[in-house]
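re: that chain from earlier
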Amino acid sequence: MVTQPLFRRLLGSTIDDLSPVLREAHDSRIDQRWSGLAQVQANPNPLARLLCRMMRLPAPGSAIPVTVRFERRADAERWHRDFAGRRYRSTLVERGALMIERMGMATNIFRVSVEDGGLRLDLVGFRFLGVSLPSALRPHCHAREHEDDGRYVFDVPVDLWPFGRIIRYTGRMERVDD
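^ sequence. v structure.
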């Protein structure tokens, strides 16, 4: 049984400093679905595109329909993302002060914090097939979430040597009641 939502456990009382929309999304014990539009910029390098495809990350484009379902289970959350039919899922758990995101063959390790009413997720570690990669060889991501005009706004840039920016996806969503 979940005693507190994942992000409340990670952030403690600072979660109360999040904007109302982000608190609604992240400080809840119930499953939720959010929907909107996204823009995806991707590196044109064929190897960078292949990596993004292997990770099932969104395809490039603008005004892409996006749906994210937050599923709360025991001490974990599952995020189901759908970018115009390209779907991927991740499982998020807490380990100490860090958020661990398992996504297929990859494990992302994030430090989560509140900044100016928004959520900041900084990638501080990465494992591929269980092998921890050094900073020089792993992706770098400093994702942000904030509220704008009552909407949940996300910005997820991912950089990887030697390509530089391999993908950046941004978008705005509203909660959808089923």
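The CA atoms of residues 65 and 84 lie 5 Å apart.
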